[in-house]
Design goal:
The complex is a heterodimer.
Chain A (H helix, E strand, L loop, with lengths): L3 E14 L2 E14 L3 E5 L6 H8 L7 E6 L2 E2 H6 L3 E4 L11 H5 L1 H5 L4 H14 L15 H13 L5 E5 L7 H18 L2 E6 L2 H7 L2 E6 L4 E7 L8 H4 L2 H15 L2 H7 L1
Parallel strand pairs in A: 3-8, 3-9, 6-7, 7-8
Antiparallel strand pairs in A: 1-2, 1-4, 4-5, 9-10
Helix pairs in contact in A: 5-6, 8-10
Chain B lengths: L1 H27 L5 E3 L10 E4 L10 H8 L12 H35 L1 H14 L4 H17 L6 H25 L4 H9 L4 H39 L5 H10 L9 H24 L5 H5 L1
Antiparallel strand pairs in B: 1-2
Helix pairs in contact in B: 3-4, 3-6, 3-8, 3-10, 5-6, 5-8, 6-8, 8-9, 8-10, 9-10
The chains are: A alpha/beta, B mainly alpha.
C-alpha cells in the first residue's frame, strides 16, 4: 500500500498531428506525498496542463508509468480518488449552486437526505451558505470558482487537481481565494496538484514548486518552499517569501549569468 | 410585462399595415389590372404585371371578416366561422399527431447520430435529401400503403396517412436540432463528467439533454409549423375530407361567385399555425432554467 498520492516515472505524452508527432511531455519524474501541496509552473507549452490531464486520466500517457495512490490513473479515476477544478468554473448553468455541488454525489447514488447535509457542509466550507439557491449567472467569477472548489471536494477526495483555477480572476479575489484554499486544504488534508503561471501564487500555496520548460515539455527543477503550515497575509510580506519567489523566478528564466552565456 | 405589451402592439401594427396596403392598392390600382402584350379578343393572353382590383379578385378586408359570420352555404346553414373552426381543429389534431410522430422519429435519429459518428455520416445526407422529395409525389405513396394495410385487416384511417405525411416534414428540424443540441456541451463539462466516471446514459441525462434545450425549442417550433403545412398539403393531395386544406380548395373553387368565402379557411389556417407555434412556446416556458446559458454565454 503506497502512501504516495502521485507517482510518475518516465512519463511522456506525444500528440499525433498532421505535421507530425508533437512531444508535449517527456521524462517526467514526480512524486506527490499524501497531503502535500505541489504547484506546476512554467510558460505556455511546457506541458503543465497536459501532466494534470494525465493524472486525471483525461488523456493517456504515451510513455512511462503513472500511479495514483498506487493504482493506474485509469483505475483511480473510476474509483473517484481525486476531485478536479478547471480555469473556468464549469458550472452547469441550469443548476443552482446547491445542485451543482451535489452533481458528483447524485451521479454516484448518494441519497437525497445525505446529499443535502453534505452540500450544506460544503457551502459553509467555501462561505456560500447564503447563495445555495442562486444560479451560476447570478454569481461573480470568484463565487463561481468557489462553487467549483466545493464541487471538487464533494466526495472528500484525498487528491485535488486544479488547473489554473484562479487564472481568470482579478488580483484581489485571487489572493483572497488563495488564502481560502490553504485553509480548506489544511482542513481536508487532501494532496493538491496545482497548475499555475503565477510565481507568487505557486510560492504562497505550495510545499514544493515544480518548474517546467517547453519544447519538449519537461521538469527542469523542483524547489521546496519550506514556508511551513501557516499561510497568511503576513507571509506575503516576509523576506523568506520574497527569497522563494526570486528562487522560482530564476529557476524559470535561468540566472543572469546563464543569460550572458547565451548571448 | 411592458415588453410583452409592446410585442402585442407591434404585432397588431403589422396586421394593420398589411390591411392598409391591401386596401390602398385596391383603391389606387386599375380595376382590370395592367396587362402587357395582350391580343385583342383573346382572353388570358399577355402578361399581367398588376393584379385586378375589382371585388371579385380583391374583396375588401372587412368583407372577408364579415363573410365569416354569414351563413356558410345559404339557407339555414350555420355561419362560415363554425365549419372553418371545426375544420381547423380537425387539421390541428392531425398536425399534432404528425408532430408527435416527427418529434419521436427525429429525436431517435438525432440520438443515434450523436452516439455513433458512423451513423451521422451514413444518415445525415439521406435526411437532408429526404426533404427535397416533393410532398405531392410522396403523399400518394403513403396513402396507398395505408390503404393496403387497412385492407390487410389492421385499421388505418385516412387521417393517419395525413399525419404520417405531416411527420415527414416535421422530423427534419428535430433530427438536426437534437444532433446539434446533444453536441452542444462545452469540452470542460464533458471532461468533468468523464472525471466522475459517468457513462453514456448519466451524461446524456444530466448534461447533454439539458444542454440541448436551447437548440431543441426552435427545432420543435419549426416542426410544429412544418406539421401544419404538411397536414394541409397532405389533406389536399390525398383528398381527405373534413380538414382545412380540403375546405380551402372547395371554397376557392366557388371564388368567382363568393369571393370573400375562401378567405375564411385562409384565416383559419393562419390561426392554426399560430396556435401550433404558441403551444410549443408554452413548452419553452416550463424549461426556462435550461436556457440560462443563452444570456451569459
Amino acid at each position: 500500500m503506497s502512501t504516495l498520492a502521485v507517482q510518475a516515472a518516465g512519463v511522456g505524452k506525444t500528440f499525433a498531428t498532421k505535421t507530425g508527432d508533437v512531444v508535449a511531455l517527456t521524462g517526467v519524474e514526480l512524486t506527490v506525498e499524501a497531503g502535500e501541496f505541489v504547484s506546476l509552473i512554467g510558460p505556455s507549452g511546457c506541458g503543465k496542463s497536459t501532466l494534470l490531464r494525465l493524472i486525471a486520466d483525461l488523456d493517456t500517457a504515451s510513455a512511462g508509468e503513472l500511479q495514483i495512490f498506487g493504482k493506474p490513473a485509469h483505475q483511480a479515476r473510476l474509483d473517484q480518488d481525486y476531485g478536479i477544478a478547471f480555469q473556468q468554473a464549469g458550472l452547469l448553468p441550469w443548476r443552482t449552486v446547491a445542485s451543482n455541488i451535489a452533481l458528483p454525489l447524485e451521479l454516484h447514488g448518494m441519497s437525497r437526505a445525505e446529499r443535502s447535509t453534505r452540500v450544506a457542509e460544503l457551502a459553509a466550507l467555501v462561505g456560500l451558505s447564503d447563495f445555495v439557491d442562486r444560479y451560476p449567472d447570478q454569481l461573480s467569477g470568484g463565487m463561481q470558482q468557489r462553487v467549483a472548489i466545493a464541487r471538487a471536494l464533494a466526495e472528500q477526495p484525498r487528491l485535488l487537481l486544479m488547473d489554473e483555477p484562479f487564472g481568470a480572476l482579478d488580483e484581489m479575489t485571487r489572493e483572497y481565494l488563495q488564502a481560502e484554499l490553504t485553509r480548506i486544504t489544511a482542513e481536508t488534508g487532501a494532496a493538491v496538484v496545482f497548475v499555475t503561471h503565477s510565481i507568487p501564487e505557486a510560492v504562497f500555496l505550495s510545499d514544493r514548486v515544480v518548474v517546467m520548460s517547453p519544447r519538449p515539455g519537461r521538469i527542469t527543477d523542483i524547489l521546496p518552499t519550506g514556508l511551513g503550515a501557516v499561510r497568511d497575509e503576513a507571509l506575503r510580506e516576509s523576506s523568506e517569501y520574497f527569497e522563494r519567489v526570486t528562487a522560482v523566478r530564476e529557476a524559470l528564466h535561468g540566472s543572469p549569468v546563464d543569460r550572458a552565456n547565451e548571448r | 410585462m411592458r415588453r410583452r405589451g409592446s410585442a402585442i402592439a407591434w404585432g397588431a401594427l403589422g396586421v394593420l399595415a398589411l390591411v392598409a396596403v391591401w386596401e390602398l392598392y385596391k383603391f389606387l390600382g386599375p380595376a382590370d389590372g395592367f396587362v402587357v402584350g395582350a391580343i385583342a379578343g383573346e382572353t388570358g393572353s399577355g402578361v399581367m404585371l398588376l393584379p385586378r382590383t375589382n371585388d371579385r379578385s380583391m374583396p375588401h378586408t372587412w368583407d372577408m371578416v364579415a363573410r365569416l359570420f354569414e351563413s356558410a352555404s345559404g339557407g339555414d346553414s350555420p355561419p362560415l366561422i363554425v365549419p372553418v373552426v371545426t375544420a381547423a381543429l380537425t387539421t390541428l389534431g392531425i398536425a399534432a399527431a404528425g408532430w408527435l410522430i416527427g418529434v419521436t422519429v427525429g429525436s431517435l435519429l438525432g440520438l443515434v447520430m450523436q452516439r455513433w459518428r458512423l451513423a451521422e455520416w451514413g444518415l445525415l445526407p439521406w435526411i437532408v435529401v429526404s426533404q427535397t422529395v416533393p410532398l405531392i409525389a410522396f403523399a400518394p405513396i403513403v396513402s396507398s400503403i395505408g390503404t393496403q394495410i387497412d385492407r390487410g385487416g389492421t385499421p388505418w384511417p385516412q387521417w393517419l396517412s395525413v399525419a404520417v405525411i405531416a411527420s415527414y416534414l416535421a422530423f427534419f428540424p428535430v433530427a438536426v436540432g437534437v444532433l446539434r443540441g446533444l453536441e452542444a456541451p462545452d469540452r470542460i463539462h464533458l471532461d468533468l463528467m468523464r472525471t466522475y466516471a459517468a457513462g453514456y446514459w448519466p451524461t446524456l441525462l444530466r448534461l447533454r439533454l439539458p444542454a440541448a434545450v436551447p437548440h431543441l425549442l426552435p427545432a420543435l417550433r419549426l416542426a410544429a409549423a412544418n406539421a401544419v403545412v404538411g397536414a394541409v398539403v397532405a389533406e389536399v393531395s390525398i383528398g381527405m375530407r373534413g380538414g382545412i386544406g380540403r375546405m380551402l380548395i372547395q371554397l376557392a373553387g366557388q371564388g368567382s361567385s363568393d369571393p370573400a368565402a375562401p378567405w375564411g379557411p385562409t384565416f383559419g389556417s393562419i390561426a392554426l399555425g399560430l396556435v401550433a407555434a404558441g403551444s410549443v412556446a408554452l413548452i419553452g416556458l416550463g424549461l426556462k432554467n435550461y436556457r440560462r446559458g443563452e444570456a451569459t454565454a
